[in-house]
Amino acid sequence: MSILDENQKQFLLDSIRNIPDFPKPGIQFKDITTLLNDPKAFGFLIDFLTDRYARFELDYVAGIESRGFIFGAALAAKLEVGFVPIRKKGKLPSTTIAEKYSLEYGFDEVEIHIDAFREKEGSRVLLIDDLIATGGTAEAAVKLIQSAKGHCVEACFLLNLEELGGAKKVSNLAPLYTLLDI
Ligand code: AMP
C-alpha cells in the first residue's frame, strides 16, 4: 500500500498556503490553489493517489463540493472510473438524496443523485475531499454514498486538522486515509 515518506509530505505541505483569518477571524484557511498551480506538486499528488487506489478495484470516485471535485475528477480520469459529485443543497438537477449535518451555528445539507452509481448495488466508491476538520461534511457524504447503495471503500483527505476530531468520527463509518495530519 502506498504511503508518503516524510520528504514527500513536506514537499506537499510546502505547496499549500496558510491564510490567517479567512473567511473569518481565528480561522487558519488552508489554500490549496498554490498546490494546484504548481504542476510538480499537483502531478505528484495525483500520481501518488493513482498508485495507491489502482489496487482498490474502484467503480467510482465521489468528490465533495467544491475542492473535492478537482482532486476527485483528476483521479477518476487517471483510474478510468466514473466521477460522482456530492453537492451543496439545490445544485444537482435530477432526483437527489439529501443529508443534513450540524455546523457551529445551524446546519447545512449535501446531496447526491439517487442514480449516481447507475443502480449498481455495492459499487465500490472512494470519497475524496481536500480537508477534514470537524468531519460533519464527510460524515454526511459517506451516508449519502450508502443511501445511494454504494460501498464507501475509503474516505481520503489531503489535509487532516487533527485536533478538530473529524477523522476519528468518520473512521467509525468507513476506512479513512489522510495524507497530511496537521
Ligand atoms: P468539516 O465538515 O468541518 O470537516 O469541514 C470540511 C470542509 O470545510 C471541507 O470541504 C474543507 O474544504 C472546508 N474547510 C474547513 N476548514 C477549513 C480550513 N481551515 N481551510 C480550508 N478549508 C476548510
Q: Bound small molecules, which ones?
A: adenosine monophosphate
- What's the pLDDT, averaged over the residues? 96
What is the CATH topology of the domain at 55-181?
A: Rossmann fold
Lateral arrangement of strands in the main beta sheet: 5-6-4-3-7-8-9
Distance between the termini: 22 Å
Q: What's the CATH architecture of the domain at 55-181? A: 3-Layer(aba) Sandwich
Total beta strands: 9
Beta strand %: 25-35%
Proportion in helices? 25-40%
* Main sheet summary: 7 strands, mixed
- What's the CATH C level of the domain at 55-181? Alpha Beta
Q: What are the secondary-structure elements, in order, as H or E?
A: HEEHHEHEEEEHEHE
Principal-axes geometry comes out as globular
Number of helices, counting only DSSP H or I runs of 4 residues or more: 6
Look at the helices and sheets and give the structural class: alpha/beta
Tell me the Rg in angstroms: 16 Å
Low-confidence stretches: none
Question: Keywords, please?
Answer:
Rossmann fold; two-stranded antiparallel ribbon; 7-stranded mixed beta sheet; 6 helices; 182 residues; globular; alpha/beta; binds adenosine monophosphate
Overview of the molecule:
The protein has a domain at 55-181: Rossmann fold, CATH 3.40.50. The protein is α/β, with parallel strands linked by helices and 182 residues long. It has 6 helices and 9 strands. α6 links the parallel β8 and β9 (176-181). The strands form 2 sheets. Strands 5-6-4-3-7-8-9 form a 7-stranded mixed β-sheet, sandwiched between helices. Strands 1-2 form a two-stranded antiparallel ribbon. α3 (39-53) crosses α4. The model has no long low-confidence stretch (mean pLDDT 96). The chain has helices spanning 6-14, 33-36, 39-53, 67-79, 136-147, 166-171, and strands at 17-20, 28-31, 60-64, 82-88, 96-102, 107-113, 123-132, 150-160, 176-181. The two termini are 22 Å apart. Bound molecules: adenosine monophosphate. The site of adenosine monophosphate (AMP) has 17 residues, from β2, β7 and α5.
